[in-house]
Design a protein that fits this description.
Helix content: under 10%
Largest sheet: 5 strands, mixed
Number of helices: 0
Distance between the termini: 18 Å
Shape: elongated
Structural class: mainly beta
Strand order of the largest sheet: 1-8-7-3-4
Strand content: over 45%
Number of domains: 1
CATH architecture: Sandwich
């Protein structure tokens, strides 16, 4: 996954790909994502169609198989009015 640095109103897409994974889970701001835009056995996609500054948060992918698990985290940073980055509240 790749972190995204967007202005308000843009589309954010996070894709988690893992070969040989038995399960793939994604988390947005620490909470499990329940509905994916697209989901296959080796890939899941999470989309926010029109981001606002309060969408600034980490997105985490956890792929698990019989050997163990691997975690990757990307960040969604949204610039705009009342941006937590600009105010010093984030990151």
């Amino acid at each position: 996954m790749i972190s995204q640095f967007l202005t308000q109103g843009k589309r954010a897409t996070f894709t988690c790909k893992a070969t040989h994974a038995e399960t793939i889970e994604m988390f947005y701001n620490g909470n499990p994502i329940k509905e994916y835009t697209r989901a296959t056995s080796d890939e899941k996609e999470f989309v926010i169609e029109s981001v606002i500054y309060t969408n600034t948060a980490p997105v985490t992918c956890v792929a698990t198989n019989k050997v163990g698990s691997r975690t990757r985290t990307a960040y969604l940073i949204v610039h705009g009015e009342k941006n937590p980055v600009d105010s010093g509240l984030c990151c």
